[in-house]
Amino acid sequence: MSAIVSVKNLSKRYEGGVHALKDVDLEIEEGEILALLGPNGAGKTTLISCICGMASITAGHVVVGGHDNVRDYRKARALIGLVPQEINLQPFETVMNTVRFTRGLFGKRGGAEHIERVLRSLSLWDKRDVQIRALSGGMKRRVLIAKALSHEPKVLFLDEPTAGVDVGLRKEMWSTVAELRAHGVTVILTTHYIEEAEAMADRIGIISGGEIKLVRDKAALMRELGRKRLVIELTEPAAHLPEGMDDTPLELGEAGRELTYTYDPGGDGTGITRLLTGLRERGYKVRDVRTEQSSLEDIFVDLTAGEDRT
Prior knowledge:
CATH architecture of the largest domain: 3-Layer(aba) Sandwich
Strand order of the largest sheet: 6-7-8-3-9-10
Number of domains: 2
Number of strands: 14
Largest sheet: 6 strands, mixed
Low-confidence stretches: none
Mean pLDDT: 87
């Protein structure tokens, strides 16, 4: 796949000295779903605003579909659909008129079949003549997606698309995003829901302090940075960690009934055999053993440790 969005040495500094983005490089491949994770204030929304041409760039440049988003702003912006965090819709307008109006802003005429297809895919067709004020919060978010898709963009940015949405509706929206990708739309989403990124994304990007910490294929990221834990259930509770095993990364669980051993499954050796032998030699009796894989959330916390998440 080739890059449909290319960000090079992008920096954004606001008046007052706040350095929101610092030399960001990012290649977004055509047809992929990229999840951008980061704590509050990490620069996620600023990055999207700069790519979409809604915020000025202090340094660097952005190219969308071969068009520089400063020199060829209109051509670059026409390729982008944006679903913002905030729900900002005209309350007395109907769903249909809201979507038609947005399509017209991009100079697109007609498109009745396309609009119907979008509304049906978002379960909004039956609500097309309903005023926005009569919709639930989840339905309003769907209208935002319909607006963003009205002019047939090649790239869709979703900034916290499921914030405040119940679990059932969130999963429905995941299916909608997957369907969009199946029709060739490149999707970039920012989210606070780790499981959202883990369930949907092809690649994961982690941004912290205005810098891209990594962008990696999800499966590769889990392999490279993921850890495994061996949880050892003891027959009798232990009062303390085994003596003489200080070089072994062990933790004693609550009530002393479990020992947890963290290891790298991709290393030269897991050390599990040596660990179990050492426990047996010291009189520890094992009732059960199980393994646990670290989640994307564990990896995210490790990489953004020390950042403000308020």
